[in-house]
Amino acid sequence: MVPIHTTNVTPQNARVLKALSAEDSSVRLQAALAAGSSADPALLETLVERCAVEPDFFVRDMLSWALTRLSREITLPRIRKELDSGRRQARGQALHTLSKIGDEDTWAWITRDMLRDADDEVARTAWRVAVALVPDGEEKDLADELVLQLGRGDRTVQLSLSRALTGLGDAVGPVLEKAVRHPDPAVAAHAHATELLRRNPEAGFDTAVEEAKRVAALGPERAAAAATAAATAATAEPAEAAQAAEIQEAADC
After folding, report:
1. pTM exceeds 0.70 for this model
2. Are the C-beta atoms of residues 241 and 219 closer than 8 Å to each other?
3. Cβ–Cβ contacts within 10 Å for residue 27, how many?
4. Hey, which end of the chain has fewer CB within 10 Å, N or C?
5. Which residue range forms the structural domain that includes residue 69?
């Protein structure tokens, strides 16, 4: 149970605070909306504490919005404390709230430990927030740190990291170029898939991953030959298509 802080709280806000712990998520959502609408500093502590335990994603997002409605002078110091919390959801939601506030001065709060957090959800949020807040000129250092996470986790985690890396623009190019030669095949494939996405944002992540695996298995030259042969076969006359198919088959062997 999240404690309800009622010091200097109006009767209306007291009802809002009580509703934040209601069993029905729709009631909690409306309560979070009301808290943001009133923007009463007396709600700060309960809003922050509720972020750490709220099970519903949409309610959590509304709680973060409610916090953005309060003065940064009181909100940011309280959120900073949550970044060191032993509760993973508290850390993750604090990071998410920072992204909503968008104060560039909070960049210094995003530590290497956060970017390497053992919890995938917290790490994913930290990557996204770091890219959003990184100052001009420090993109390369951030890329050097994020690239250490290549090959981590499942598809969702890897896609999040790829999006974060591509969000760093040209600064990540040399970093990925080095990473594609990593001795760990999983790291190399993830780096190659990320580079493909960077060059062609319209390409799907799954397609990029499959292409990366193909390059890793065949080598760049044979993979390029196979891709050229496949493109030729798709548009060629029957005789030419047969020849292209033979080339592709040889590349795949």
Report:
1. yes
2. no
3. 15
4. N
5. 14-133
